[in-house]
Amino acid sequence: MFLTNLTWPAVASLNRDIPVVFPVAALEQHGRHMPVFTDSLLTDELIRRVESRVGDRVLFAPLTWLGNSHHHMDFPGTLSAEPRVYIDLLNGLLENFIAHGFKRLVIINGHGGNDVPGRQSVFETRQKHRDRKDLLLLFATYWNLGAEPWKRDPTIQQRVMGHACEWETSMVLRIRPELVGDLTKTVDVPFGNAFDPAVRGWTMPDRSEPGHVGDPRGATAEKGEVLFSCFADEVVKLLARVGAWDGKSWEG
């Protein structure tokens, strides 16, 4: 169920063990062929599909479209919250629902740049409420939950998420094809090896002149449907685990 459709008495009547989901994404450049709202469009569609399957077993807050996108600021159109501001924003969302008595809070993320501040936010909020053994705070990026879409459609070439890549371009082709530019004018921008397993600080111009990473030329709407389906499956599984948690143990 969607929070935006409920009255406050309806929210007050909910079981406080219901999982509450905060979808987060971004507004940032996605190469020359994709809209700046790509991450938010895709995350919103994913959440819509998940909600249709879980119904009143999960409460979904509205999408937070502003993310941490400083590494894209060389490209006009990008909007980005300062990292500390973004962490505090996420902390605030969690604190709001802790104040309302809810105990199982899950941030579902659809933008890679939110990953580090998102992990930090659930860490910080948990430390603030360190005596609450009944509090479950999770941050999850939807494409990192274990989906293997290439096993369902062997024509999918990518194995990890890129940026305005085969995956994201296919997903936008599935829901908003009119927003995708001429893919014949795009090129393959290899993922490369950025000193793995070390983590490198980077900006997008370090990696890509056009602003995308991966090869969008193989994208199709059909692949997009497979990707949405696989990612939705994994989010549904995660939320089932959250709902089944016994309220005290480390395992989930």
Notes on the structure:
With 252 residues, the chain is an alpha/beta fold. It has a single domain (3-244), classed as Creatininase (Rossmann fold, 3-Layer(aba) Sandwich), CATH 3.40.50. The protein has 8 helices and 4 strands. It has helices at residues 8-12, 38-54, 83-99, 115-128, 149-152, 166-175, 204-207, 221-244, and strands spanning 19-24, 59-60, 104-109, 136-141. It has a 4-stranded parallel sheet, with helices on both faces. Helix 2 packs across helix 8. The longest helix has 24 residues, at 221-244. It is globular, with a radius of gyration of 18 Å. The relative contact order is 0.18. The mean pLDDT is 97.
The spatial strand order of the largest sheet comes to 2-1-3-4
CATH class: Alpha Beta
Q: Give helix % range.
A: 25-40%
Query: Which whole number gives the mean pLDDT?
Result: 97
* N/C terminus separation: 23 Å
Helix tally equals 8
CATH architecture grouping: 3-Layer(aba) Sandwich
Please name the CATH topology: Rossmann fold
Q: Please trace the helix and strand order, writing H or E for each element.
A: HEHEHEHEHHHH
Estimate the strand proportion.
5-15%
**Outline, from the CA principal axes?**
globular
The total of beta strands comes to 4
The Rg value, from CA coordinates, equals: 18 Å
Number of domains: 1
Q: Characterize the main sheet.
A: 4 strands, parallel
CATH homologous superfamily classification: Creatininase
Low-confidence stretches: none
Structural class by helix and strand composition: alpha/beta
Give a short overview.
The chain has 252 residues and is an alpha/beta fold. It has eight helices and four strands, in the order H-E-H-E-H-E-H-E-H-H-H-H.
